[in-house]
Amino acid sequence: MTPKRVCIIGGSGKLGLYMVQHALDRGCEVVAVCRAQSVAKLDKFRDRITIHPGATDDRAVIEQAVKGCDGVLTVLVPWGVHGYATGTAQAVLDYAEPHARLIFSCGWHISLDGKDVYSWQLRLFVRVFGWLARALRFADLDDQIEACRRIFTSDRRWTVVRGSNLEEGDSEGLPLWSHHVGDPILARNLTRRVDFALFMVNALEDDSLVRTAPAIVGCK
After folding, report:
1. Architecture of domain 5-217
2. Is the model's pLDDT at 122 over the cut of 80?
3. Starting from the edge strand earliest in sequence, which strands make up the sheet with 176-178, in order?
């Protein structure tokens, strides 16, 4: 069953905007959380959604936003070096309704069971980008790893959707997925961002994905 009231945390970002549209297309009542300076990005939806301005790791903002929602879609962004993604994930885990479906987004570098097989190019990128981003105090990939560790050990009805490289473009349809990076089905390593959002929203009503971390790729 499609949730009737959905909270989208990070609703003003590129992925978030697509999720807002997909959720509205399914007849959901939508609540969005985004930074105050980004509220204008949601102007085209302003008369159709409820907006809670604030940082996504602000526990008071999240507590208010997820109240009464039976689905929560969260973009886990490891901004800065102060545990932003971890704070966001923990607030959702703490305050979402007990029955709510919780869907989180992250990259392929997150592993649920340690059985993923990564190419040397991806390992090198994560190592170099991770070091550079942290050195510049721009982002901390370890923060996203810790956020997902907390989700994985939770008894909530969660799904962590792990995205491949993303591109813009018209929808190709619901992405394919596998339990482990390195599986042949994921060889293309490219997904339309609009379809990443589609998978996130679709996961709300797919109980086979509860407590899994599907790695996705474009269906074409």
Report:
1. 3-Layer(aba) Sandwich (3.40)
2. no
3. 49-53, 29-34, 5-9, 71-75, 101-107, 157-163, 215-217, 176-178
